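Ticket #4471: complex job returned nothing on first submit. Input attached below:
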Amino acid sequence: MSIEVKDLSYVYSPGTPYAAAALNGISISINEGDYLGIIGKTGSGKSTFIQHLNALIKLQNGSIKVFDIDLTQKKPDLKRLRGTVGMVMQYPEYQLFDETVEKDVAYGPKNLGLSDEEIKGRVREAIELVGLSYEEVKDRSPFELSGGQKRRIAIAGVIAMRPRVLILDEPTAGLDPRGKKDIMSLVKRLKETSSPTIIIISHDMDAVAENCDKVALFSEGLIKAVGTPREIFYNARLLEENEMDVPSVVKIANEMKKRGAVLDGEPVKREELIDAVRRWRSE
Amino acid sequence: MPIKFEKVTYEYPAEENAVVAVKDVSLEIADGSFVCICGENGSGKSTLAMLMNGLLQPTSGAVTVDGKTTSTEEEEELFAIRQKVGMVFQNPDNQMIASIIEDEIAFGPENLGVPREEIGERIDYALSAVGMTEHRRHTPYKLSGGQKQRIAIAAVLAMRPEVLVLDESTAMLDPKGRGEVLKVAEELNKQGITIVLITHFMEEATRADRVIVMSEGKVVMDGTPEQVFRDRESIERYGLELPAPDAVAAELIKEGIPLEDKIYSESELAEAICRLK
Amino acid sequence: MNNVVFGQYYPTDSVIHRLDARIKLLAVILYIVTVFFIVDYVMYAALFLFVILVSVVAKIPLKVLLRTVRTIVFLVLITAVINLFFTKGEVLWAHWKFIKIYKEGVEHAVKLALRLILLMLFPSLLTLTTTPMELTDALESLMSPLKLIKVPVHAIALIMSIALRMIPILMEETNKIMLAQKARGADFDTGGAFKKAKAMIPVLVPLFVGAFRRADELALAMDARCYSSVANRTKYKVMKLTLKDLVASVVCLAVFSLVFLNKYLFPFDEMILSLFK
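Support reply: We reran it on our side without changes. The output follows.
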């Protein structure tokens, strides 16, 4: 078990007329090695939830345990927590600030108090991991890179901290199709090489169906369901009640079912659908 | 014929490394059409959009709106063009100047010198066209992204444009907001307003009656969505993707499943597959 | 979601909200002058009462009004403490040789605190009952004589309006960037002043870069909507003085002149006090 959340509630600006409940008691366990997709409408509490995992928001109610770090304690070891849980916010390129790419990526590791030697190695590794050439970009200003490159550098800045858990809040927002594809395969690569646990917030149901092995559906500050993509995306009532889109693949399978053609195995990924269609035809 | 490009080239000023953003483009945007412009980041889509209403003026060639060139220094002539070709940008927060919605919408007509009484009527019209009438006296700050973009569209509509250019106006929105904006655009198109939609979302492109694909400053594909998306190799080459059900169809065809080569919606594809057995 | 800026527009349907913003602005100026002139507790009480009355009429909950004072609590405390120790006179309380508190010091401290709080309250009522746009319009209108000496009054008003709109957006952005850098291990809370200032660089740089980007896009959006600082604009909202504005002016003038009269001509507060002795 890498992350254990119990009865987490949160209210913004408590005790004022602007008080607004964001989380109403959620519990979830996330295992090491999970690729968790968080889905839900804007304002359903997704961002508030993930910010809790990094102690960016002060715990009001409930408990969170990240590996052996207990956030209910008075003074949890924040430095260790932030080295354990990496967070890529929405439009992360807007947080770049330093003169050179190298310095910017080094910011996180530096804050962890690592040695210069160690930092240098990690920076190089992180830049290469996101698919850029260290020698080519290290001395350039992050502000002169292209949009897609900026986002990669921002992600490099987080993975240079070598987090065991990597959280990404809508990492493909605003990108063109190729950029989207590149980022999603980057995340996959990171899962295999550096951060075994991935948590991703996404509005793109196709991407969630294609990549995640676990899905949590948020609505009105609650987790309405957690399960495999198959369990969630074939639960038509659940999706409808929470105004969620159905992934394209599932839509096609549902439409076929309506016409009397039942595909076996309830496909959610494109590949699975094609296999299922092939099998269905040869029956 | 409201907008016409004749051999238009636009180079960014020398200090920006003379990037050629638009290269020798000739095209016409027909009255009342719904045109979608796609292409990778940096392919020149936004530059093309800004050439349409004189926010940028061509380095060579000519852009005309209703026969009048955009290459003019006369503010009055430029304003006449910008009144006809309204534009909505990507970030809803970076294009509003007022803290109250009706003031925001009044801004354009005020600039045009529209008489006061008429501005009131135009605000009524613009807000109802985007379905935001009840928000008239509110602040845009608390609205959702989709609502903010609808306000931005209303602010342009109040200038009574003939063409509405949406420059990646759906890029920052969630699916719900994107749906709202698209619905408004389609509705306005039905009322006769020409829509030019720049987008990265291919399923939006399938709703247009014409798709223009740009790459490295040039128009590389131009046709109906059917024509454009059928050329799957080119779509891939220019960094785009097929709309999801279409991509599935393409892979099925590759697997040797005898589907007709056309663009599909999910239900059409399901129908077509079912007919195979 | 956000800690709302204190004193932000609080919409109700009160008569105070509907008053001409120019009258309200002038009243605030007069009020500030008045506060600087008075020294008596009774007059302080009178002004407090006046402020509370206005807020009742404006249907602003007292809690909301008082919250505006919270932002200056620190300032009030500091000035009070300084006055407490640095005003000499009759000794009230002494501890060893160093710390002595004088009667005059206490009085000074209390009065200054009261004065600061009074100074905060009434202007807060202005911003609570007047939209930023109305305020800028009022300012523009009041400054319009300056047009004769070529001061770009309209441009100044527009700049203010945009600034007001951008404040909540930039506050939200600051918050987001701080969270992002915190996630990268930034520590904004410990260390001396120098260390803290240095820790803010990773927040300030992206904030400024972002602000300039926003400014660029906003300028483009304004261009696209035909903004010109020189052309003949119309104005959708025209300010008209009505009977209620007149009444409000009379009430304010009456209250403020009472305070002045009291100080310079007719010290009736002492008469009232003497009744209780």
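Residues 69 and 77 of chain A are 7 Å apart (CA to CA). Closing as resolved unless it happens again.
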